[in-house]
Amino acid sequence: MMWNPWGSGYGMMYGGSWWFMALQMLFGLLVFIGLILLVVWAIKSFTGEPRSNVAATARALEELKLRLARGEIDEETYERLKRKLLEER
User: Fold this and answer.
1) Would you state the pLDDT for residue 54?
2) Top-confidence residue, 2 or 32
3) CB 14 within 8 A of CB 8
């Protein structure tokens, strides 16, 4: 009989090597962890505040600051608009 580095002469079904089984277990564990991370990401993305809304609010506040600095609006208008933007958020 010839020497077989992968275990017995019957292949993986009857006494395959230990490292192949360990690799299969590791792969299964990685798939399981990936599925858990996918579920957590899906829950966070559907229940959390949309990021585009936060970014839009930040851009609007920055534009308000610029308008105040250019003198297009007074401080009272700035504060009123700022409160309104933050309430909508």
Assistant:
1) 76
2) 32
3) yes
* Secondary structure of residue 7 in the 3-state scheme: strand
Domain range enclosing 64? 51-88
* Distances 43 to 37, 38, 39, 51, 52 between C-alpha atoms, Å: 10, 9, 6, 15, 17
CB-based contacts of 49, cutoff 8 Å, min separation 6: 89
Q: How far apart are CA 15 and CA 46, in angstroms?
A: 47
The answer to whether residues 40 and 55 belong to one domain is: no
Greatest Cα pair distance in the chain: 94
CA-wise closest residue to 5 among 15, 18, 17: 17
Residue 7: beta bridge partners?
Answer: 16
Same domain? 81 vs 57 = yes
pTM over 0.70: no
Residue with tokens 């229940």: 47
Q: Which residue has the tokens 């930040």?
A: 58
